[in-house]
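User: Hi! I'm working on a homework problem where we have to compare a predicted structure to a textbook description. Could you give me the structure for the chain below?
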Amino acid sequence: MARFLGLSILLALVLYGIWPYASILRLNNALENPDTEALAPLIDLAAIQAQYKARIGSSVDGLLSRVTDRQTEAAQSGPPASRQPANHSNGEQNLLQLDTDKVLGWLANNFKQLGDAALDQAINLDWARSTLVAASQRADDPAGPNSSNFISAVDFAFFESWDRFVIRLGKLGAAPTFVTLSLQGHQWLITDITH
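Assistant: Happy to help. Predicted C-alpha coordinates:
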Protein backbone atom coordinates (compact mmCIF):
# COMPACT_ATOMS: atom_id res chain seq x y z
CA MET A 1 0.00 0.00 0.00
CA ALA A 2 2.84 2.39 0.88
CA ARG A 3 4.52 1.63 -2.42
CA PHE A 4 1.31 2.39 -4.34
CA LEU A 5 0.92 5.67 -2.42
CA GLY A 6 4.54 6.60 -3.13
CA LEU A 7 4.19 5.85 -6.85
CA SER A 8 0.93 7.83 -6.98
CA ILE A 9 2.60 10.86 -5.40
CA LEU A 10 5.56 10.55 -7.77
CA LEU A 11 3.24 10.27 -10.77
CA ALA A 12 1.27 13.35 -9.60
CA LEU A 13 4.50 15.35 -9.25
CA VAL A 14 5.70 14.34 -12.71
CA LEU A 15 2.35 15.23 -14.27
CA TYR A 16 2.32 18.56 -12.44
CA GLY A 17 5.85 19.27 -13.73
CA ILE A 18 4.83 18.48 -17.33
CA TRP A 19 1.58 20.45 -17.20
CA PRO A 20 2.94 23.93 -18.06
CA TYR A 21 4.96 22.49 -20.94
CA ALA A 22 1.68 21.27 -22.42
CA SER A 23 0.51 24.88 -22.19
CA ILE A 24 3.52 25.89 -24.28
CA LEU A 25 2.32 23.48 -26.97
CA ARG A 26 -1.20 24.97 -26.79
CA LEU A 27 0.30 28.46 -27.02
CA ASN A 28 2.36 27.47 -30.05
CA ASN A 29 -0.76 26.08 -31.78
CA ALA A 30 -2.74 29.24 -30.96
CA LEU A 31 0.02 31.45 -32.41
CA GLU A 32 0.15 29.38 -35.61
CA ASN A 33 -3.60 29.87 -36.02
CA PRO A 34 -4.30 33.10 -37.95
CA ASP A 35 -7.36 33.80 -35.78
CA THR A 36 -6.38 36.04 -32.85
CA GLU A 37 -9.27 34.68 -30.78
CA ALA A 38 -7.49 31.31 -30.61
CA LEU A 39 -5.15 32.95 -28.11
CA ALA A 40 -7.94 34.25 -25.84
CA PRO A 41 -8.33 31.15 -23.62
CA LEU A 42 -4.59 31.17 -22.88
CA ILE A 43 -4.21 34.81 -21.79
CA ASP A 44 -5.36 36.76 -18.76
CA LEU A 45 -5.42 40.25 -20.29
CA ALA A 46 -6.50 41.89 -17.04
CA ALA A 47 -3.41 40.50 -15.29
CA ILE A 48 -1.09 41.69 -18.09
CA GLN A 49 -2.68 45.14 -17.99
CA ALA A 50 -2.28 45.23 -14.20
CA GLN A 51 1.43 44.33 -14.53
CA TYR A 52 2.01 47.15 -17.03
CA LYS A 53 -0.01 49.60 -14.92
CA ALA A 54 2.15 48.75 -11.92
CA ARG A 55 5.36 49.28 -13.95
CA ILE A 56 4.18 52.58 -15.37
CA GLY A 57 2.83 53.63 -11.98
CA SER A 58 6.18 53.03 -10.31
CA SER A 59 7.93 55.01 -13.07
CA VAL A 60 5.50 57.89 -12.65
CA ASP A 61 5.84 57.70 -8.86
CA GLY A 62 9.61 57.90 -9.26
CA LEU A 63 9.23 60.98 -11.43
CA LEU A 64 6.84 62.55 -8.92
CA SER A 65 9.21 61.89 -6.02
CA ARG A 66 12.13 63.49 -7.89
CA VAL A 67 10.01 66.55 -8.71
CA THR A 68 8.75 66.78 -5.12
CA ASP A 69 12.31 66.47 -3.77
CA ARG A 70 13.50 69.30 -6.02
CA GLN A 71 10.56 71.48 -5.02
CA THR A 72 11.25 70.83 -1.32
CA GLU A 73 14.95 71.64 -1.72
CA ALA A 74 14.11 74.87 -3.53
CA ALA A 75 11.59 75.89 -0.87
CA GLN A 76 14.02 75.18 1.99
CA SER A 77 16.85 77.16 0.42
CA GLY A 78 14.74 80.29 0.17
CA PRO A 79 14.09 82.54 -2.80
CA PRO A 80 16.78 82.44 -5.44
CA ALA A 81 17.39 86.20 -5.24
CA SER A 82 18.27 86.03 -1.51
CA ARG A 83 20.87 83.33 -2.11
CA GLN A 84 22.67 85.08 -4.95
CA PRO A 85 21.60 88.69 -5.27
CA ALA A 86 24.25 89.59 -7.85
CA ASN A 87 23.45 86.78 -10.32
CA HIS A 88 19.95 87.22 -11.74
CA SER A 89 20.38 84.66 -14.52
CA ASN A 90 20.99 81.86 -11.98
CA GLY A 91 17.88 82.92 -10.02
CA GLU A 92 15.83 82.97 -13.21
CA GLN A 93 17.13 79.51 -14.05
CA ASN A 94 16.04 78.22 -10.62
CA LEU A 95 12.57 79.74 -11.07
CA LEU A 96 12.37 78.18 -14.53
CA GLN A 97 13.35 74.83 -13.01
CA LEU A 98 10.58 75.18 -10.40
CA ASP A 99 8.04 75.93 -13.15
CA THR A 100 9.28 72.96 -15.16
CA ASP A 101 9.02 70.73 -12.08
CA LYS A 102 5.43 71.89 -11.49
CA VAL A 103 4.52 71.11 -15.10
CA LEU A 104 6.18 67.69 -14.89
CA GLY A 105 4.35 66.95 -11.65
CA TRP A 106 1.04 67.95 -13.22
CA LEU A 107 1.76 65.80 -16.28
CA ALA A 108 2.74 62.82 -14.14
CA ASN A 109 -0.47 63.07 -12.10
CA ASN A 110 -2.62 63.29 -15.21
CA PHE A 111 -0.68 60.52 -16.92
CA LYS A 112 -1.59 58.15 -14.10
CA GLN A 113 -5.27 58.93 -14.59
CA LEU A 114 -5.29 58.92 -18.38
CA GLY A 115 -2.66 56.20 -18.76
CA ASP A 116 -4.92 53.49 -17.36
CA ALA A 117 -7.52 54.01 -20.07
CA ALA A 118 -4.88 54.16 -22.80
CA LEU A 119 -3.21 51.04 -21.49
CA ASP A 120 -6.50 49.12 -21.47
CA GLN A 121 -6.97 50.01 -25.12
CA ALA A 122 -3.38 49.29 -26.15
CA ILE A 123 -2.95 45.93 -24.42
CA ASN A 124 -5.40 43.60 -26.10
CA LEU A 125 -5.33 40.22 -27.84
CA ASP A 126 -3.90 41.70 -31.05
CA TRP A 127 -1.07 43.32 -29.07
CA ALA A 128 -0.35 40.08 -27.19
CA ARG A 129 -0.30 38.03 -30.38
CA SER A 130 1.91 40.48 -32.28
CA THR A 131 4.28 40.80 -29.30
CA LEU A 132 4.64 37.02 -28.94
CA VAL A 133 5.06 36.47 -32.69
CA ALA A 134 7.65 39.28 -32.95
CA ALA A 135 9.54 37.88 -29.95
CA SER A 136 9.49 34.41 -31.52
CA GLN A 137 10.83 35.77 -34.79
CA ARG A 138 13.57 37.79 -33.05
CA ALA A 139 14.68 34.80 -31.02
CA ASP A 140 14.48 32.31 -33.88
CA ASP A 141 16.57 34.01 -36.59
CA PRO A 142 17.79 30.75 -38.24
CA ALA A 143 14.20 29.86 -39.17
CA GLY A 144 13.89 33.09 -41.12
CA PRO A 145 11.93 36.29 -40.65
CA ASN A 146 8.57 34.73 -41.51
CA SER A 147 8.77 32.04 -38.85
CA SER A 148 6.50 32.36 -35.85
CA ASN A 149 7.29 29.02 -34.27
CA PHE A 150 6.99 29.78 -30.59
CA ILE A 151 8.50 26.50 -29.40
CA SER A 152 11.73 26.90 -31.37
CA ALA A 153 12.18 30.38 -29.88
CA VAL A 154 12.00 29.09 -26.29
CA ASP A 155 15.48 29.17 -24.76
CA PHE A 156 14.44 28.50 -21.16
CA ALA A 157 11.22 27.43 -19.47
CA PHE A 158 10.87 26.41 -15.83
CA PHE A 159 8.98 27.01 -12.61
CA GLU A 160 9.58 30.23 -10.72
CA SER A 161 7.33 29.00 -7.92
CA TRP A 162 4.70 26.32 -7.59
CA ASP A 163 2.14 28.52 -9.38
CA ARG A 164 4.37 30.61 -11.70
CA PHE A 165 6.19 29.39 -14.79
CA VAL A 166 8.60 31.58 -16.77
CA ILE A 167 9.41 31.19 -20.46
CA ARG A 168 12.37 33.04 -21.97
CA LEU A 169 12.25 33.66 -25.71
CA GLY A 170 15.77 34.30 -26.91
CA LYS A 171 19.18 34.04 -25.34
CA LEU A 172 19.94 35.68 -22.03
CA GLY A 173 21.85 38.89 -22.66
CA ALA A 174 20.38 39.30 -26.14
CA ALA A 175 17.26 41.28 -25.11
CA PRO A 176 15.01 38.26 -24.53
CA THR A 177 11.26 38.39 -23.98
CA PHE A 178 9.93 36.80 -20.80
CA VAL A 179 6.46 35.24 -20.77
CA THR A 180 5.05 34.44 -17.35
CA LEU A 181 2.37 31.78 -16.94
CA SER A 182 0.39 31.63 -13.71
CA LEU A 183 -1.77 28.78 -12.50
CA GLN A 184 -5.32 30.10 -12.39
CA GLY A 185 -7.92 27.57 -11.48
CA HIS A 186 -7.21 24.49 -13.54
CA GLN A 187 -5.03 25.97 -16.28
CA TRP A 188 -1.86 27.95 -16.91
CA LEU A 189 -2.52 31.41 -18.35
CA ILE A 190 -0.15 34.12 -19.61
CA THR A 191 -0.16 36.86 -16.98
CA ASP A 192 2.85 38.93 -18.06
CA ILE A 193 4.99 39.64 -21.12
CA THR A 194 8.17 41.65 -20.61
CA HIS A 195 11.16 42.61 -22.76
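For your comparison, note the following. The first strand starts at residue 154 and ends at 161. Helices lie at 2-32, 45-76, 80-83, 88-122, 125-139, 150-153. Good luck with the assignment!
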